[in-house]
Amino acid sequence: MEAIIERTTDRDQQIARDNLPQVKRLVTSFAKRTEPVAIQVSDHDMVSLQLPAKLFGILQTILDLMAKGKAFSLIPANTELTTQEAADMLNVSRPHIVKLLKEGVIPYKEVGTHRRILLEDLVVYSKDLKQKRKEALEELARLGQQYNM
Question: Which residues constitute the domain of residue 129?
Fold first, then answer.
């Protein structure tokens, strides 16, 4: 997996913050749009583009990260990860990932003696884990209120 990550400059952060509200409005406006969006970009020349409406949601995510000064990378969903790359993404140990694979919690395939995990499968696992944590915290809060703790 190759990813190029660059830190956002202060100027880039400010530009992202200034333009994020307009992009959010466009995302809302284009939410159900299936046809391309026509835009014009003016620098030295006027350039007209036809872009997929979904692109503006991605642009919003990127601008939001840039506004916060966070580094980011775009990785295709069908990217295959090593167990170490998966562990790094989830911030867990490689042996923990191997255990999850052996238990069938995360699907994988074997390439020779190595295990490969699809990024999209790892993302599904991560979202599911976050949802379960959220539900557990809500239950703890409810019990705390019920027993005046």
Answer: 80-146
